[in-house]
Amino acid sequence: xxxxxxxxxxxxxxxxxxxxxxxxxxxxxxxxxxxxxxxxxxxxxxxxxxxxxxxxxxxxxxxxxxxxxxxxxxxxxxxxxxxxxxxxxxxxxxxxxxxxxxxxxxxxxxxxxxxxxxxxxxxxxxxxxxxxxxxxxxxxxxxxxxxxxxxxxxxxxxxxxxxxx
Length: 165
What we know:
Elements: E1 2-7, H1 15-22, E2 28-34, E3 39-44, H2 47-57, E4 68-70, E5 89-94, H3 102-112, E6 118-126, E7 129-136, H4 142-155, E8 161-164
Antiparallel strand pairs: 1-3, 1-4, 2-3, 5-7, 5-8, 6-7
């Protein structure tokens, strides 16, 4: 099973409401609620279903509150220490070849820009299209990054659509 983290859940939201809202695109297999932290771990059958849930439902309004839907942090990042810092520069790349792995995407992203830290990368299928997501630490280089990515992708003769998430 594949898990997504759902946070900022209002206390008035029931498990059945979560199952209905987050299961509009695929069946929700299991919900593990943590009422103390106003969060839940929601389980899907496939990685694609989990990726679609993150894309469609993050920042969705639920009982007058915006919920957070994202991939769960690794176990070592959870706990009582400081949570990892998240950054707003996320690049969604659609149309990657099926052979592209998250490691390939992260390696490429690191080599593309000197001095820019890649903090996250992932690849997944979205509606039959192989996609990648890269999150960067430096925000001021977004226009430069867009040009570099387009040139690199054209060099590989790969059709991709890049959007800033």
